[in-house]
Amino acid sequence: MNAFLKYAVILLAGLLIATGTNFFLVPYKILDGGIIGIALIINYISGAKIGLAIIMCSAPVFLLAWLKERDIFYSSVLGLVISSFMIELIGPLQYYFLYYVELGSVSSAIIGGFLMGTGLGLMLRFEASTGGTDLLAKFIKRYIPLNLGVIIFLTDALIIGAGGLLISKETFFHSILTILSGGVATGLCTLEK
């Protein structure tokens, strides 16, 4: 695989994840699953920077990957750093986007989830990822005989459930739409030829 193409796709995927996060989820306090969802909860409650929270929350999982499987570590750390950086880079443009584009919370949840799912799907297609709970699920699967998708779904449900309790019930319902549309987009991007 051409290294330039892989890095270009990872950069595009990071931009899609950042766009979905900043322009569609954050304005309505909608959550995503995984580490990004945890980072969004931290941001909504404390105002902490989302990209930094993603890196801090991912650190224990990446330490585990470094100790157990370095190949997974190297392919995931690039996706994590680019996604976090892009989220912080385009965050200030949120005001301008919202000034010109007016969407409701349901539309934003669906579009944001689809953009983020497409970004993750592209990374997975080119053998990279943002790490986080996807990486954690690979380790859990070694000890608990569940399908990888089921493990990821359960961790996402736990994160969204906690966010719904901490933020609002409306957040919970919109976040379910985000995860569903994100799952569809990821699935479409990772279909076998």
From TrEMBL:
GO terms for cellular component: plasma membrane. It is found in: Cell membrane. InterPro entries: UPF0750_membrane (IPR051461), YitT (IPR003740). Keywords: Cell membrane, Membrane, Transmembrane, Transmembrane helix. It is a multi-pass membrane protein. It comes from the Bacteria. The chain crosses the membrane at residues 7-28, 34-65, 72-91, 97-124, 144-166, 172-191. Pfam families: YitT_membrane. Signal peptide: none annotated. This is YitT family protein. It comes from Paenibacillus riograndensis. The lineage of its organism: Bacteria, Bacillati, Bacillota, Bacilli, Bacillales.
